[in-house]
């Protein structure tokens, strides 16, 4: 409508308005007739106004009427002759704007005018509308006006007639008023430039508007943009020509691919098809439905373990330990004794939560309804979760055994008895340490040697000294040993490099025994002289010199002196009493010597020894010879002259060893405080290691008279008595039971008990202490 | 020339990786790694020597097996995590660009388990891997159940979506249904932390903890993301376990779930079980539902009908009757062909006796079979309902406050045989109704609204019956009565451990018994003396004080008797002498001389006994010392360790015994004074 408007305005002045699409289907009869009248009644102002009112009323909308009234009353208070024209103009504009709303109103106002109600054949009401009379002189744009039927003859023929031809009905078409006349009339009225017919409210002068201002007003009224430059309908620029070229620019023939289905598209389509088939693309569904479906899909239930097969658990996998079940004290109503006392409660509360042994205090609620929620349940669960995934698991072998089963089955104490328990007798007399002690084979006398250079013989039970001899004034007696047979009464003692063989004489020794012993000792002299004669030409120095010690000593009973090359520390007799061995640890090559009593012969069995020899002994029943160096004990066969085995107790410095009378077991003591039991058949490693002493062990000794006892003497001033039973059955292990610690000796300058010996039959033993005493334990 | 070996390239260093190395290797974020570890059951290991394992200077704390991490590399979940990560990146990029529609589209695909409670992946294969057989899964069910039951009772927050909670609740209820039908629940225990249940599923004992129905307080640092990861796994696990369990007893899984009933708080009653095959359908239904609602196939219709039924008592009674008939039929069938174990009796002598499982679970499972139980509104309905159902009770009613699904909401229903109450007794004006008989005939007590002909018990009665596998006498558990202690059924008392169920005399050591006797005697003597002195006209304050002194002295004695050393004995003797002297003095004061002598003789003999005991103990200790001497160092240490824990236990036990002795004495005294 907007673009047509300027033309409309112009046409309002013209008698024949041009047709417009917009008004094509609207009936304009009233308006047009009115417009016809207007030209006639231009002069008559009042009438005109009334008419206008009527017309607007006729035409319909009350709102229009009001608007117009408002417009007329406000804007055009006083009418001037020429102003009718402008009002007309404005009015036309109004009417044209409001045209679409007209139709229904008019029908309301005169419903009975244009139709009649009849009854049709069926008896129903029928509205018969009047025939619309198309007024041909209207300025209806659609109706082409009266069609002149005069044909192709010049119109000048009708110049003399008032009509110009005939219409389709044969009626005369009257000649319209000549344009010139109207034009002349309009031209005759002169309107000053910019005249609006309005008065400036402020000044009272007539309001003159320029053409631009008028245009602006019009645009505002139309609701258009005030800017004239804006073109809402620019000319279309074609991207492609709409005209088909007769001659295309390229003469290339249409390629084949234009006629083939696209492979790429096929691919794309296939991709989609595949996606649809696989369910990746789903048809659209509203979100709620989708959600529901998803939920259904999620709850797929099936037997996960349908074809289960047990697997070997991974050995490295450690299943999480279960939480311990609740105990009595976790009950909501525990027995009263489980409730904490006040102190316990305070102690628990005072502790840090992490240090508490239990994370709860037992509590009693009288009834179930009083039990509150557990505060830290969520935390507990959380802790458990943390433990499950964050705690390193270590398999700890919990020994689910009775601790008492670890303890060895010990024989009952009654079975262990007898063993020495108390110090029965104390032998005093030695000046300084007592280095060595020995009980004679009959079990009546005790011989001892000490730092004072004397050898003393005591009566065992009474403790009375019965015999004594001073062998050396400056050197200590290092060892005393009785010859182990009852047909003689011979004592061997070592001081420095000398070994003395003597026959103590005192009351209890019968003269026959005494004589037999003396004979035995002197028997060798004859042999020795002849033997030595033979050995002399070899040009070597003999390993030992057998001689008589001198008359003074011979009177005392000391009959033979054997001088070897270095200080003798240990003497050990063969079971038959014909041989004895001496060990002098500092003696290098000749440290171990074997002496033959009957031949007055000394032999050095080892040309070379690895390590320093500490002690040596003969096997109690077989022709074997044991030599202990610092670390090992070597066992030699005396007949075959070969090394049989090397026993390694594992001690750093062996001090002494002893062989079980049965011959298959051996105990060794060491300066590093260890007592080692060896089963010779089992292994060359110790069967048991006992470390009960606080200081070095000096001597170890088995009981030789049939009692399953052995003992050791240590520098801590104690003797320890063990029950060591070697079963007759080879398969069983020996049982070793510590039975008694004998305390009594004093420790003097870090030396305690230096030597000990068992009674040949009774469970008694004697010990020689660094405190100068000898004690008999029984 | 030998190859140069660099540190950290052979041996232990190759076997372990630190956590950060593992994360780097898997190319995932730390939270994702954590998830993966939790689901796959991979946990850190403790290397023997940490220094040898670490390649870096700084000490790492967490080590994993390299093999474990390699195993994770093949995990399909890893790909899912990566996809998810890519998607997240896409979304954030699209949002950055302003492509909201794209972002929305991708957002739809993105898993938001924290919001929706369901991820894009399933953990089925992980469960199959971790538990190759069903029994493996059952073995690991403890934590699963405890966790899910806890979450079922949690309030929903942003960290714990409501859907997750609902799912947990549903799974738990389904599991409970299985236990009810299969009669596999064995024990239950009311602890201060919650209620423990123990079930035996295919020979495996499963123990779990259910919190009391309160709002759970969450204090301290609790990372719900970690818990959520566990719950996700456990939910999947339990749903499969439930499926298997349900199908194993011939019930369709999932059971029909009635949303309407659930909203009304029916809990267990919201489910209706169906047999897998139609033939067994009816039986199954019977086993689970209340007597009244068993014939209705449609729960909705049933719910409507229920209301009417409740109004009409006659209908009710009829329904019951019919169920009873059905039950009877069931029982007969059970007798004809039972799955139970037969008893093997030796026919000829000389064979070994094999241990046989005790018959009895069959009877126990029908413990509450004959009862109609009504729960008062102050009792915890859920555990009671579950427990009663699991042990054969079919007709349980409760107040409508406690939710939907009860057999009857009317307290005055005449069919009720037992009512469980947990409220204090409001004493009637002239009523002493601690007595059970009184309970049953207590019409006169108006305030407590007792109905005649029904047994009133406290909730603990149910638990004790279940644990002892027999019906306890309800008098002990009458409302307002002091309840007997509730004991844990899970404790297996080892030999020599303190057992509160046994009388004190049966378990105290000789020395303790002697001690207590002596104390008793001393006190008795005191009492006697006191009585006498009361009678005596020449009663003085001095005497009283002397008596007090004496009792103190005797107490001191008792304490010292605990020792074993020689010195103690001597001291004891001295003390005894002093005591005697004191007595003589007292006797003089109070003017009587005969009694003290006899008492002295008694105490003397006791003292001698004591000495003998002590000597024995000393000898034993010595023997032990000797035997210990024979052990190797390693074994000795082990032995001492064992002794340590044993000693701790035994001291605890002695403390408990002492406490109990004291309590019993006090009780006796109180009784005596009352009498």
TrEMBL record, chain A:
Coiled coil: none annotated. WD repeats lie at residues 427-468, 753-778. SUPFAM superfamilies: WD40 repeat-like (SSF50978). GO terms for cellular component: nucleoplasm; PeBoW complex; preribosome, large subunit precursor. Component of the NOP7 complex, which is required for maturation of the 25S and 5.8S ribosomal RNAs and formation of the 60S ribosome. Belongs to the WD repeat BOP1/ERB1 family. This is Ribosome biogenesis protein ERB1. It comes from Lasiosphaeria hispida.
UniProtKB/TrEMBL annotation, chain B:
SUPFAM superfamilies: BRCT domain (SSF52113). It comes from the Eukaryota. Residues 327-336, 520-576 have a biased composition (Acidic residues). Residues 363-479 form the BRCT domain. Residues 315-324, 597-628 have a biased composition (Basic and acidic residues). Residues 315-361, 509-675 are annotated as: Disordered. Its main location: nucleus. GO terms for biological process: maturation of 5.8S rRNA from tricistronic rRNA transcript (SSU-rRNA, 5.8S rRNA, LSU-rRNA); maturation of LSU-rRNA from tricistronic rRNA transcript (SSU-rRNA, 5.8S rRNA, LSU-rRNA). GO terms for molecular function: ribonucleoprotein complex binding; RNA binding. One of its GO terms (cellular component) is preribosome, large subunit precursor. Keywords: Nucleus, Ribosome biogenesis, rRNA processing. PROSITE patterns: BRCT. It is found in: Nucleus, Nucleolus; Nucleus, Nucleoplasm. Belongs to the pescadillo family. Component of the NOP7 complex, composed of ERB1, NOP7 and YTM1. Within the NOP7 complex ERB1 appears to interact directly with NOP7 and YTM1. The NOP7 complex also associates with the 66S pre-ribosome. Component of the NOP7 complex, which is required for maturation of the 25S and 5.8S ribosomal RNAs and formation of the 60S ribosome. This is Pescadillo homolog. It comes from Lasiosphaeria hispida. The lineage of its organism: Eukaryota, Fungi, Dikarya, Ascomycota, Pezizomycotina.
């Amino acid at each position: 409508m907007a673009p047509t408007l300027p033309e409309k305005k112009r046409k309002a002045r013209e008698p024949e308005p041009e047709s417009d699409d917009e008004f094509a289907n609207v009936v304009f009869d009233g308006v047009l007739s009115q417009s016809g009248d207007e030209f006639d009644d231009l002069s008559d102002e009042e009438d005109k106004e009334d008419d206008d009112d009527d017309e607007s009323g006729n035409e319909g909308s009350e709102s229009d009427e009001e608007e117009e009234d408002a417009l007329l009353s406000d804007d055009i208070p006083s009418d001037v002759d020429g102003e009718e024209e402008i009002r007309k103009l404005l009015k036309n504009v109004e009417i044209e704007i409001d045209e679409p709303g007209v139709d229904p109103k008019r029908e309301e106002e005169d419903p009975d005018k244009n139709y009649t109600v009849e009854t049709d054949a069926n008896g129903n009401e029928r509205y018969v509308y009047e025939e619309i009379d198309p007024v041909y002189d209207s300025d209806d744009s659609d109706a082409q006006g009266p069609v002149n039927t005069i044909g192709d003859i010049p119109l000048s023929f009708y110049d003399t007639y008032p009509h110009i031809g005939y219409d389709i009905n044969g009626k005369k078409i009257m000649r319209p008023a000549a344009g010139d006349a109207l034009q002349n009339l309009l031209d005759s009225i002169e309107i000053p430039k910019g005249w609006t017919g309005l008065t400036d409210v402020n000044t009272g002068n007539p309001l003159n508007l320029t053409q631009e201002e008028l245009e602006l007003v019009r645009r505002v009224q139309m609701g258009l943009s005030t800017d004239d430059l804006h073109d809402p309908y620019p000319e279309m620029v074609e991207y492609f020509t709409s005209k088909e070229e007769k001659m295309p620019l390229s003469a290339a023939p249409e390629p084949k691919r234009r006629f083939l289905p696209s492979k790429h598209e096929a691919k794309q389509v296939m991709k989609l098809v595949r996606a649809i088939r696989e369910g990746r693309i789903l048809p659209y569904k509203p979100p709620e439905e989708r959600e529901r479906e998803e939920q259904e899909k999620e709850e797929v239930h099936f037997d996960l373990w349908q074809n289960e097969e047990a697997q070997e658990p991974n050995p490295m996998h450690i299943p999480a330990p279960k939480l311990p079940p609740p105990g009595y004290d976790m009950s909501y109503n525990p027995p009263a004794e489980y409730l904490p006392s006040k102190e316990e409660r305070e102690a628990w509360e005072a502790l840090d939560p992490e240090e508490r042994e239990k994370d709860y205090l037992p509590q009693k609620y009288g009834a179930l309804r009083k039990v509150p929620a557990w505060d830290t349940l969520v935390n507990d669960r959380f802790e458990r979760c943390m433990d499950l995934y964050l705690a390193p698991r270590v398999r700890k072998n919990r020994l689910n055994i009775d601790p008492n089963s670890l303890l060895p089955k010990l024989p009952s104490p009654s079975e262990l008895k007898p063993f020495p328990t108390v110090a029965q007798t104390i032998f005093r007399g030695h000046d300084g340490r007592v280095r060595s002690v020995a009980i004679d084979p009959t079990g009546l006398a005790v011989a001892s040697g000490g730092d004072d250079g004397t050898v003393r013989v005591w009566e065992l039970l009474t403790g009375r000294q019965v015999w004594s001899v001073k062998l050396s004034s400056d050197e200590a007696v290092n060892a005393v040993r009785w010859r182990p047979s009852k047909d003689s009464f011979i004592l061997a003692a070592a001081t420095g490099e000398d070994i003395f063989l003597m026959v103590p004489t005192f009351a209890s020794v019968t003269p026959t025994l005494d004589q037999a012993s003396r004979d035995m000792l002197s028997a060798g002299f004859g042999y020795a002289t002849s033997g030595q004669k033979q050995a002399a030409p070899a040009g070597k120095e003999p390993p030992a010199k057998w001689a008589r010690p001198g008359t003074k000593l011979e009177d005392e009973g000391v009959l033979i002196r054997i001088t070897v090359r270095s200080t003798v520390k240990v003497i050990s007799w063969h079971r038959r009493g014909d041989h004895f061995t001496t060990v002098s640890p500092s003696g290098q090559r000749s440290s171990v010597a074997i002496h033959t009593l009957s031949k007055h012969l000394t032999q050095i069995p080892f040309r070379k020894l690895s390590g320093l020899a500490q002690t040596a002994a003969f096997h109690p029943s077989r022709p074997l010879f044991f030599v202990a160096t610092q670390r090992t004990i070597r066992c030699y066969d005396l007949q075959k002259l070969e090394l049989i085995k090397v026993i390694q107790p594992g001690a750093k410095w062996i001090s002494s060893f002893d062989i079980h009378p049965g011959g298959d077991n051996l105990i060794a003591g060491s300066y590093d405080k260890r007592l080692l039991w060896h089963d010779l058949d089992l292994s060359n490693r110790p069967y048991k290691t006992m470390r009960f002493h606080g200081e070095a062990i000096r001597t170890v000794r088995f009981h030789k008279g049939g009692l399953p006892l052995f003992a050791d003497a240590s520098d801590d001033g104690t003797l320890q008595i063990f029950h060591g039973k070697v079963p007759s059955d080879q398969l069983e292990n020996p049982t070793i039971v510590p039975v008694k610690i004998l305390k009594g000796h004093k420790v003097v300058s870090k030396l305690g008990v230096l030597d000990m010996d068992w009674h040949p039959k009774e469970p008694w033993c004697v010990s020689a202490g660094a405190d100068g005493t000898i004690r008999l334990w029984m | 020339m030998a190859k140069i070996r660099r540190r950290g390239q052979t041996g232990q260093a190759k076997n372990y990786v630190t956590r950060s190395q593992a994360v780097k290797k898997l190319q995932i974020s730390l939270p994702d790694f954590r998830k993966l570890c939790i689901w796959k059951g991979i946990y850190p290991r403790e290397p023997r020597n940490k220094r040898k394992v670490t390649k870096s200077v700084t000490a790492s704390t967490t080590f994993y097996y390299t093999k474990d991490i390699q195993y994770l590399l093949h995990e399909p979940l890893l790909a899912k995590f990566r996809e998810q990560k890519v998607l997240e990146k896409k979304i954030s990029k699209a949002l950055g660009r302003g492509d909201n529609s794209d972002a929305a589209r991708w957002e739809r695909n993105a898993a938001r388990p924290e919001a929706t409670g369901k991820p894009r992946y399933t953990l089925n294969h992980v469960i199959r891997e971790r538990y190759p057989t069903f029994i493996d899964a059952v073995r690991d069910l403890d934590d699963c159940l405890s966790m899910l039951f806890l979450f079922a009772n949690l309030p929903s927050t942003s960290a714990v979506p409501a859907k997750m909670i609902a799912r947990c609740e549903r799974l738990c209820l389904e599991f409970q249904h299985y236990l009810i039908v299969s009669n596999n629940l064995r024990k239950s225990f009311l602890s201060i932390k919650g209620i423990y249940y123990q079930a035996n599923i295919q020979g495996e004992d499963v123990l779990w903890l259910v919190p009391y129905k309160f709002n759970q307080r969450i204090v301290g640092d609790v990372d719900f993301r970690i818990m959520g990861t566990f719950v996700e796994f456990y939910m999947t696990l339990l749903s499969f376990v439930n499926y298997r369990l349900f199908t194993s007893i011939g019930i369709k899984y999932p059971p029909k779930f009635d949303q309407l009933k659930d909203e009304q708080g029916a809990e267990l009653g919201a489910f209706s079980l169906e047999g897998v095959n139609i033939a067994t359908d009816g039986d199954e239904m019977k086993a689970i539902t209340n007597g009244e609602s068993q014939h209705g196939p449609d729960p909705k219709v049933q719910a409507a009908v229920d209301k009417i039924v409740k109004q009409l008592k006659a209908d009710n009674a009829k329904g019951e009757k019919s169920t009873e008939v059905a039950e009877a039929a069931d029982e007969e069938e059970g007798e004809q062909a039972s799955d139970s174990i037969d008893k093997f009796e030796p026919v000829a002598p000389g064979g070994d006796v094999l241990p046989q499982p005790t018959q009895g679970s069959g009877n126990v499972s029908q413990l509450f079979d004959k009862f109609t139980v009504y729960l008062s509104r102050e009792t915890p309905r859920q555990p009671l309902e579950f427990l009663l159902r699991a042990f054969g009770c079919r007709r349980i009613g409760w107040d409508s406050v406690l939710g939907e699904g009860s057999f009857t909401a009317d307290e005055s229903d005449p069919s009720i045989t037992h009512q469980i109450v947990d409220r204090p007794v409001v004493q009637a004006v002239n009523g002493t109704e601690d007595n059970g008989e009184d309970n049953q005939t207590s019409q006169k007590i108006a305030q407590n609204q007792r109905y005649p002909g029904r047994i009133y018990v406290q909730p603990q009665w149910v638990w004790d019956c279940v644990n002892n596998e027999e019906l306890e006498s309800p008098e002990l558990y009458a409302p307002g009565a002091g309840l007997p202690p509730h004991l844990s059924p899970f404790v297996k008392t080892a030999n020599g451990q303190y057992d509160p169920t046994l009388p004190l005399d049966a378990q105290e050591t000789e020395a303790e018994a002697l001690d207590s006797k002596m104390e008793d005697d001393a006190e008795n003597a005191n009492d006697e003396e006191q009585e006498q002195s009361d009678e005596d006209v020449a009663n003085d304050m001095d005497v009283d004080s002397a008596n007090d002194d004496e009792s103190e002295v005797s107490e001191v004695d008792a304490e010292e008797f605990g020792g074993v050393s020689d010195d103690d004995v001597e001291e004891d003797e001295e003390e005894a002498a002093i005591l005697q002297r004191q007595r003589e003095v007292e006797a003089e004061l109070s003017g009587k001389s005969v009694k003290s002598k006899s008492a002295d003789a008694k105490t003397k003999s006791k003292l001698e006994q004591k000495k003998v005991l002590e000597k024995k103990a000393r000898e034993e200790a010595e023997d032990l010392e000797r035997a210990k001497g024979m052990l190797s160092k390693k074994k000795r240490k082990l032995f001492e360790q064992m002794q340590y824990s044993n000693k701790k236990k035994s001291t605890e036990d002695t403390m408990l015994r002492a406490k109990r002795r004291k309590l019993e004495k006090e009780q006796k005294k109180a009784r005596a004074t009352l009498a």
